[in-house]
Amino acid sequence: MPEVQINLEPLVTVCVPTIGRTVTLRTTLESLKAQSYSNYEVLLLDNASPPDTQEEIARYARTERRASVLRSTVRLPMFDNFQRGVDAASGRYLAFFHDDDVYATDFLMEQIHLLEANPSIGFVGSNWKVIDGDGYPVGNRNLIRSTEVWSGWRYIEALFALGSNLLPMPGLVFRRDVLDSDTFESAQGAHFSDFAILMRIAEEHDVGLIARQLITLRTHRDQASRKLDIGESLRLRTATFTEYCDDLVTRRPELGSYVKRLRRSIRSARRSSAIWTWLQADNSHGAAASRAALGSEGIDRWLRYGLQVADRVGVGGLLRTRRIQRRIKNAAYFVVTRSR
Questions:
Q1: Alpha helices, DSSP H only, in 187-255?
Q2: For residue range 187-207, what is the model confidence (pLDDT) as tens digits?
Q3: CB contact at 8 A, 19 and 100
Q4: 210 and 309 within one domain
Q5: Alpha-carbon span 265 to 140, nearest angstrom
Q6: Strands (DSSP E) along 52-114, which ranges?
Q7: Residue pLDDT, tens place only, 262-277
Q8: Which of 41, 216, 242, 289 is 20 to 30 Å from 68 at the Cα level?
Q9: Which value, to the nearest 10 degrees, does the dihedral of the CA atoms of residues 146, 265, 217, 131 take?
């Protein structure tokens, strides 16, 4: 009778970075326990969390034989903490369960299935839901029309054209060998550094997209992105795209025409982001800040004037209904992703 080979290594490493959001961490860990896929290890990346969070982590580790705790006694930058998980992981695939988000039961199952079926994929993500700090639903993001595999270059162009990410960083599963020993440590700052990280990976690998909503993201006041005003957010985003283009054409000069196309998208992405924040503004101050965030070119001046008139005559309020917002966002996505 042939000997049966048993693989004792976990196929997936799930990293749980936390800085001390004890209540939401508990919810995140509950969604991890409920996963339909079970061949994983857990690395709890305790980033100098307070005593009550340490107690929650210890309680989970006592009941979960697959869990290990990696504690830092000093607060590390976010991506440095992530890198600790990459360096310690033993799985073929790597996911980050953020301590303020909730993951669907089939989150791992569906994404691992797509990765296993397509060895060319570097990372995979899905559509998502949004809840507020109290757990109440505030929106859905269904930008992905069908479950499929894109070339990395198509993903990069879509990211530039939209000015935002199709796939939220907390909802990704990576093939571990696409992450180097300095992938996250080399990230500059917490704002939009994930764009550059993912684009560098996409230069060499395909990207998987899943149409189901496999993650629920929590939006709250403690998030770094919520502390940026609209103008600063657009400035940093534009700088990220510009620096990426400068770096790409230096590393790969043969892609000069491709980079030129990306550079043309930077200005349109800034405009679309400013218009989208204007659509989402919940008061006149937010609408005015969104208009001010537009650039100085002729088309920007005309757009600013048009949005100002829309607000004066009341059209802006009409356009800010959730149904209209959803239709506009979906139309913008269709134009971006179907234009090639």
A1: 193-202, 230-251
A2: 666 567 889 999 999 999 999
A3: no
A4: no
A5: 26
A6: 67-72, 93-96, 102-103
A7: 998 888 878 877 887 7
A8: 216
A9: -100
